[in-house]
Prior knowledge:
Helix content: under 10%
Number of helices: 2
Structural class: mainly beta
Distance between the termini: 38 Å
Oligomer: single chain
Number of strands: 10
Radius of gyration: 17 Å
Order of helices and strands: EHEEEEEEEHEE
Strand order of the largest sheet: 6-3-10-9
Amino acid sequence: MTDTPHHDPAEQAGATRRSVIATLGGATLGVAALGFAASQAAAEDRGGTPRAAAGPAAACVLTPEQTEGPYYLDLETVRKNITEGKAGVPLTLRVTVVDIATCFPLPNTAVDIWHCDALGVYSGYVAGGSTPDTTFLRGVQLTDSTGVAEFTTVYPGWYVGRALHIHVKTHAGGTVSNGTYHGGHVSHTGQLYFPETYNTKIAALTPYRNNTAGRTLNARDGIYRNGGSSTVLTVTQAGSDVGKGVTGAVVLGVDPAATP
């Protein structure tokens, strides 16, 4: 039987360094850049369709970074599809990275993501002896000329003490060789979240309904409460059946020169 990992107390530590997220004021950047709601309540229930690109953001505002957590692996494997056959609702994740100084997109930035599977298990960590030497649901993509990095993955599950989330880092100044990102420095560490309306729908589907861990809502997650409302994904579905797949989009504003 696969055990789900338990929450590490290190994840509850508040982040001391701050990064930024771009508030787009109704304009968008690239195919994934979406306007953000002004309130936390609106952020919890985002939806809709991206509008056409309309130049730089009207304003960029600081938002807290969030903890790296205990499950990071420095693999830096450059790949778009990170599923490795893991079951779950298909998720197309689009992250747009914007320069806080100019509010313009940042091309050639490495976006590094990792998250648990439907049952709350992370690859590469011993969870009841079940997942050492595995790499599922981890990968890096470089942003294109519009600042967009896109991944093919599955909607994450959950584990004790945490809301559904995806971890993210951005790296600047490195290079790619032999399918791996090398060098540079980390310019942002954070986490991405999902609207509860979608979390509830997903939790009722297979294989998520086999997850025996109690699901923590965003509002009850101490890490989410420390700025997580700024990075709730805008989630859309193509048709009436959410099980067929969804798209999640977010815009992160970072200082490319920042270091931990």
